Amino acid sequence: MQQLWGSRFSKKAEKIVNDFNSSLPFDYKLYKYDIEGSIAHAKMLALQGILKEDEADKIVSGLAEILDEINEEKISFNLEFEDIHTNIEKLLIEKIGETGKKLHTARSRNDQVALDIRLYLRDEIKNIKKLILKVISSLLKLQNEHTETIMPGYTHLQRAQAITLAHHLGAYVEMFKRDFDRLNDCNKRVNVLPLGSCALAGTPHNIDRNKTAELLGFESVSLNSIDGVSDRDFIIETLCAISTIMMHTSRMSEEIILWTSFEFKFAELDDAYSTGSSIMPQKKNPDVSELIRGKTGRVYGDLITILTVMKSLPLAYNKDMQEDKEPLFDGVSTVKTCLEILSPLLLSLKFNKENMLKAVNKGFLNATDVADYLVEKGVPFREAHRICGNLVKYAEENDLTLNELPLEKYREEFEGFGGDIYEKITPYVSVNSKKSAGGCAFDAVKSVITENEKWVFEHENN
Ligand code: ARG
User: Fold this and answer.
1) Considering the entire predicted model, what is its pTM?
2) Which amino acid residue places its CA nearest to atom 2 of ligand 1?
């Protein structure tokens, strides 16, 4: 069979060329968007009098039938026809005859593929957003269960100050909220109609691009036909947003791996979310978290691939751009699987409150509280820091905690220390003293949880 563009060629392309050229093995995934776009295009052409009404009807119902047949797996595509766009057009012509040949009026595969990817991405952005909301809801549930679960907070992976588990998890809630917003922002630039740019210059036919945009639910139409077919920045920024989500899930996974290790013992993995070793019978491995961490590298690779493909392309369309789809599809499906498994994994964790509290009591996590106590007594913070440093040094040398240090020792360093210092530096009082907005005091965290529950509710319902 001849290619749709075959007439100016005197020879058929070699099979190896066809195979190399074909994007069908991966872009077949776009079939429903390709059909959706073609249906809107045909309707617009009819409204503009470019197609007769009955011609458009024939095209639209032919395409709808093809969609059903593909969904029912009744159709096999032909690799010889390069890509999904050509395959569907060929199928249409086979099905409805000559009228099918009119569909490609005032359109090129260049604007067609740009349209299809935008339709695909718009849908997938919605799906990823839903999964983010689910992860946030799971985190909020855990936060509510652990508003008063004390644990060590870290800097440099060294014990730093006491916090609550709710507060720690709340940090991820904020990260995922920003990820959600970032996707919304990307969507503003994805949701623009490129169709009508044609090959690169627009068309002499009297098309109505705003009508097509309206039929497809696009917010606006692209304003430069060269730009409409040339850029893939909307893929790049979405993959960047997706990479950021992966970075957040990876950091969380890293912490789950640490927390469930024998060294930390802050949490235990559920059997259903861990795996064993083929040789060491005692092992319970955090494979799921490790895979999320590992897959993050793959998604960064997807972003770098498309950035590199685009970096020196002259305007307008170049076949290099066919290489946009595999990294995009891979990034999208990877982030979706990772987010999907993260929610139940989080909810299956069993936290060991006792071990977390034990860890808080060793390592001078309350040293800053001693300094803050002195500041309340009027000592300048730098001076308070120095006094407290001496106390820590002494305590460390004598294998004592700050709670065990005798009052006389405190008074040796600063005579204004009172007996109330011991109460001030207990973990509960210490945590609860951080009442600054966004701080770790129980009530401060509880009010943020309530605010974020409202945020989820509002975003789930619009
Ligand atoms: N399969 C092509 C792609 O994904 C579609 C556009 C082809 N355009 C062309 N002028 N060869 O980029």
Assistant:
1) 0.95
2) 322
